[in-house]
Amino acid sequence: MLVKTNDIKYWDLIAKFFANECTDKEVDVLNQWIEQSTEHKNLFNDVKNDLEIINKYTAMERVNVDSAWDNLKSRIEADEQHEEKKTRTINFNRVLKYAAMIVVVAGLGFLFNIIYQENFGYYSFTEYTADNEMSNEIVLPDGTKVYLNENSSLKYPDEFDGTQRKVKLTGEAFFDVAKNKEKPFIIDVKNAEIRVLGTSFNVRTNLNDSDVEVYVETGMVEVYRKKSDKNNILVDPGNVGIVTKSEIKKQKNHDPNVLAWKTKNIVFREEHLVNVFNTLSRVYHVDIHSDNEEILNYRLTSTFTKQDIESVMEVICVTFNLKVDYQNNKIIVLKN
What is the mean pLDDT of each run of 10 residues along the chain (336 residues)? Predict the structure, then answer.
């Protein structure tokens, strides 16, 4: 599923709406945009909720909006003269004026930061969600290749401007980052940031709570834990960086199947079936279980190379004289 968010004019309407300056027609247009997708609705509600929180806990004071806007506009114009950039296709003054009104009056940095970043940094964004196992390879504008696991999503700019290449990941993905010493590649995930110049590694965020795991295949990866005194570690090949609510640490990778979801190459060496089923469930996105403790304690030694789940389960059943019951997206393993 591909979601484009390159029509920045709706930020103008959102800003005007919360500044109470929308006409009835503009309110209708904004409502139609909100109803177009869940993403639009969530984005609008995020802004609304932030405003409500600010209004609840912050004492409101009367301010000179025109003066605040003049100061902001002067800084923007100075930056424009310094960088000699004149290629803009929308009315930034109008958007930023309404944004400034909200920022000054309500203290809402959220809306201004998004508008400023999207209009003065990246032109537009793409959000790609992998809703199946097919065609989930993405090539970013800088040549970086990203392989998304199922039910994962990546948000990235259509152009990497400025001094960095920043993307946002939800779920799991393998990154093969194009080298660029002038522009570090940054991945925003939950309570962590991952920074590299050019390397390959796997990032997993679909874990419990706010946990993040980074397995490095080649190169060196720097992992930051947000809002922490000990806030970064360097992870080298063969190791895993782990970020939790309480700590950030590096350890040796002991899982030979950490990339099996991508490669479909699976190795088991005297592994209990309970762990085998957990690995297969993650690789093939299917719930595999057995209520028989004896079955779960059987040990399997085998290698599977790009086989479908039916073939894998057939090998297991033949090896231990078992049978399987397929129920929708579940596989129940029983004694024969």
Answer: 48 75 82 82 74 52 47 52 44 50 46 44 75 78 94 91 90 94 91 90 82 94 80 92 89 95 95 96 93 95 95 95 91 93
74 exposed, middle or buried (CB, 10 Å; 0-12, 13-18, 19+)?
Answer: exposed
The position carrying tokens 């479908």 is 308
Q: Check: CB of residue 127 under 8 Å from CB of residue 39.
A: yes
Question: How would CATH label the architecture of 260-335?
Answer: 3-Layer(bab) Sandwich (3.55)
Q: Which fold has domain 125-252?
A: Jelly Rolls (2.60.120)
- DSSP assignment of 139-182 equals E-TTS-EEEEPTTEEEEEESS--TT-EEEEEESEEEEEPPP-TT
**φ, ψ dihedrals at 91, nearest 5°:** -80, 90
Using DSSP's 3-state secondary structure scheme, residue 156 falls into strand
Q: Where are the domains of the chain?
A: 2-120, 125-252, 260-335
Tell the residue number behind the tokens 């290629």, with chain if given. 87
**DSSP state at residue 178:** P
- CA–CA separation, 304 vs 284, rounded Å? 13
Q: What is the pTM of this model?
A: 0.64
CA pair distance 163, 183, nearest whole angstrom? 5
The pLDDT assigned to 239 comes to 96
Closest CA to 214 of 193, 183, 184, 198: 193
